[in-house]
Amino acid sequence: MSTVQWRKSSYSQNDGGACVEVARQLPAVRDSKDPHGPSLTFPAASLAAFLAAVKSDPSLSSRLLS
User: Fold this and answer.
1) Sign of the torsion angle spanned by Cα atoms 34, 39, 40, 46
2) What whole-number distance in Å separates Cα of residue 25 and Cα of residue 41?
3) pTM score > 0.70 for this model?
4) What is the pLDDT of residues 32-54, one digit of tens each?
5) In which order are the strands placed within the sheet that holds 39-41?
6) Treating both helix axes as pointing N-terminal to C-terminal, what angle do 58-65 and 44-56 enclose, rounded to 10 degrees?
7) What are the residue ranges spanned by the domains of the chain?
8) Cα–Cα distances in angstroms (integers) from residue 61 to residues 5, 26, 27, 34, 58, in the given order
C-alpha cells in the first residue's frame, strides 16, 4: 500500500497523537503513529456508514475520542 494516499482529519493534532488515517483509493484505515504497520480494509459501504454516523452524532464522536 505504498502508493496509497492517506488522509488525516483536519481535527487531528500535529503532535502525532492518537490519530487514524483514511486511504483515498480504497476503504482502509491505519494508525498514523505506525504508517508502515498494518491497515484495516472494509467494504466501502460499511466505512461510509461509519464515517457518516460519526459526523452526524456529536455524542458518538466524543465517546470515540475518550
Assistant:
1) positive
2) 11
3) no
4) 888 889 999 999 899 889 888 88
5) 6-8, 20-23, 28-31, 39-41
6) 100
7) 6-65
8) 24, 23, 20, 23, 5
Residues 8, 10, 13: CA angle, nearest 5 degrees:
80
**What are all long-range contacts of 6-10, with beta carbons under 8 Å and residues at least 24 apart?**
6/30, 6/32, 6/35, 8/32
Cell of 24: 483515498
The DSSP annotation for the chain comes to -TT--EEE-TTS-TT--S-EEEESSSSEEEETT-TTS-EEE--HHHHHHHHHHHHH-HHHHHHHH-
Q: Are 45 and 21 in contact (CB under 8 A)?
A: no
